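Ticket #4471: structure output looks truncated?

Reporter: J.K.
Steps to reproduce: submitted the chain below (420 residues) through the standard prediction queue, then opened the result file.
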Amino acid sequence: MPGCVLLIAYHFPPVAGSSGLQRTLAFCRHLRECGWSPVVLSVNPAAFERTSASQLADIPADVPVIRTLALDAARHLAIHGRYWRRLGIPDRWSSWRMTAVPCGLQLIRKHRVDVVWSTYPIATAHRIGASLARLSGRPWVADFRDPMVEKLSGTDEMFPSDPLLRRARLAIERKAADSAAKLIFCTAAAKGIVAERYPWISESRMAVISNGYDEEAFQDADTILPSMTHSPRKVLLHSGVIYPTRDRDPSALFKALRVLADEGVLSPANFELRLRDPSSEQYFRDLSVLHGIERLVTIAPSLAYRDALSEMMRSDGLLVLQGITSNPAVPAKLYEYLRAGRPIIALVHPDGETARLLREVGIDSSAPLTEPILIANLLRKWLSDVSESGKEGLPKADITCYSRRQLTRRLAEQLDQLTS
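Returned output as attached by the reporter:
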């Protein structure tokens, strides 16, 4: 019979700047429809670099949310901007474990918790989940939003490259492989990495539950549309953080924009690349100046969640950036892009999970992240399609399976198996 589940998550409102909070927030909203009562264990807001109150109201009033002290080693424990390296292993919030484990044990007793669930990419959450499961005897569900350690096919290059960090993550991953009752992944490729590394894990202990979109939030965002002005220029939007690393680096895109500008195809009068809250703003400003396209690029501030969804729904194109090193993952924002119903420009590796998902839903508007000429050709086609029909780059398949309500039901099925 369904019961009570403890959700351990670093990313939870009021954190800002991360789409990762949407997964846990959706589970805590929709699990009750499946008979499960969620209790959330997160960090104190001071642990977040940025906060926003825009989604606090989305937390159900009857869901207990307990926040314990977590110190960010880079901000709270640094001296003159430097901190002891081991304080950042397995992540900068490793101190959270000291407060979360005793609090979690109290919550397990108070709420009669049946299952402990924790989510990565903050690895300390899995350390907390493993400890609580061991001390309480409750089954542990380890949720992996991203692979913990990856090896680049063809070169055997390992990520993360820091050996100390990599060993720490592998130790946590091994703990999950040995003792977690269920291991949940966002993509089949991420599941395959762990299955290959730990061949003794039975298939019944693993499941794939992707990220998704919140239908109710999109319906709310739809009501915002009339009050927001539309730019006369064709707007290609990237919504959210762009990490200035080689698996997200937009340098080839900027080169392609310069080519099209030199040809007279693009100008500040007819085109805008809008980077909405990308973080590392100065880096992208400098990069646009370097390529001579600063008048084509807008660095825009953050928006409240529903306003950001509304902006997606009224943009002429939605941009995805992903290189080969992230092939096993799918950016969480892609599912929101699919629901927004606007053309998608995907600069992704053809062998990755993102390209596979786009092909499954009937979208073929993609080019490799590192190829300026192919990107320029893709943008030419997009500009022509937008002018003529606006239909290219839209999903042709049913995407309702990616509704977070549907995905929560799949999680509930996994939890049911542990208590049946």
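Triage note (M.O.): checked the attachment and the full token line is present. The chain has a mean pLDDT of 94.
Status: closed, working as intended.
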